[in-house]
Amino acid sequence: MDPTQQLLVIVAVLAVVLIGLTIVVVSILRNQQQAQKQAARRVVEQEKQERSRLQSLVARVDPIARKAEGDEIIATARAEAERIRADAERVRSEADGAVRLERERVDKLLGEVERRERRVAGREDQHAGLQRKLDERFGDLEVTLADLEARRSALDEAEANQRDQLARIAGMTSEEAKADLLAQVEHEARLHAVQLSREIESEARRDGEQKARQIIVGAIQRLATEQTTESVVTTVPLPSDEMKGRIIGREGRNIRAFEQTTGVNVMIDDTPESVLLSSFDPVRREVARLTLTELVADGRIHPARIEEVYERSKRRIDEICLRAAEDAVTEVGLTDLDPGLLPTIGALQYRTSYGQNVLKHLVECAHLAGLMASELQLDPAMARRAAFLHDIGKALTHEVEGSHAKVGADLARRFGEHPDIVNAIEAHHNEVEPKTVIAVLTQAADAISGGRPGARRESLEVYVKRLQRLEEIARAHKGVDKVFAMQAGREIRVMVQPETVDDAETHVIAKEIAKQVEDELTYPGTIKVTVVRESRVTETAH
User: Fold this and answer.
1) Between 283 and 277, residue with greater pLDDT
2) The whole model's pTM is what?
3) Long-range Cβ contacts of 520-527 (<8 Å, 24+ apart)
């Protein structure tokens, strides 16, 4: 059954249901009218009975009493009769009004039913016209289909003849010609796909890079922070070189007690009026610096005094760390941070990453992420929170196994941070996949803050190893002739063999090298991969 017939059946069923409902309503209203008429008849009969009863009473009245009290009784009877007549008239008028209202409602219902019946009839006519048009179009389609089948058979016959002629001319069979044609079409399709993908990618990169550049440059221009580099060695000034002997003590007992208590190495060399404190833990090194500074200022240096001053300096550093954490949190605008995280955040004030202060780096990243989130119409508070907490694991990496991203994510999860914040912390070095835009903004803010000129410094060994690894990654690809790491590792220039690699494959090699560099290396900023294919033709004139 086609859709038009189904619709007609549904309309017919609805019409039958409406007619049945109308008949039921009319029968109910008629029953009510009959009941009201019967009630009015009963009232009139009662009135007649009362009149006859009064007349019999008047007839029975004693003539003597009737003469004395006749007027009063007659008046009372007449008043009672008038009252009964008025009640009967009122009941009859009410019954007539109710009957009139019911008639009006029935008339309305009947009118509505008639209108619906006319509408259903109009729809049936409309559907009948549509059905006729569909039948006409179906007939046209059948004619067109027959014509197309005839044309297809003619084309198949012509194609077969042409294929036979081509096979005779080319000296190849139909299968060989088909294979050759498919190979040629496949090659052209690949070239076209590479060109199309290159155009689409360049267009997307152009528009995307322009928008991203505007957002990032705007965030950088709106943020102004001082850049400082810090070392792992602290210098403590001395009032005179005589103080070095007092620091060493008799047979070296003072310096041994100091190193044993603080866990920091004291290096005393020929540098005038200064000593060096060395330790991998910056918090421990700062406690030792405060301890030694107070001991030198006081002048009393012995093992018991060293322990006393050390405990006092340690409490002072804890207070300084807590105050630094509170200042950083206030500057970023995080009012609902768990107080248990503040000591860990404060410890980052004395930790550095490639010479960059980690706590200042977190504050800077928070501002950058908030600015970029505002430009993208996202939640800036969530972006600032994720960027501020992304390196919190660096305060615990020497105490807990695992990368600082993993350690920081576990710490944030333990203190009840939102899952999106935890993912942003864990994914800011791509150890896990970013699940939200906030995580991507955290990565961008981290790269911007660490990639500023002068923000960080690398050791020569790490720098050389990174450059060597860049050249190794590029040289491992097939067809590569020469590789040059240029601009301090910001660009890789790859020379390929023109007879081995074509123009389409150069694009594929560049993408593979960039993907491998992203997966294997950690670096601030971006690295540009340039693949050069140069063809030279040389002839000699004699």
Assistant:
1) 277
2) 0.44
3) 520/469, 520/473, 521/466, 521/469, 521/470, 522/429, 523/466, 523/489, 524/447, 524/450, 524/451, 524/456, 525/447, 525/451, 525/490, 526/490, 527/470, 527/489, 527/490, 527/491, 527/492
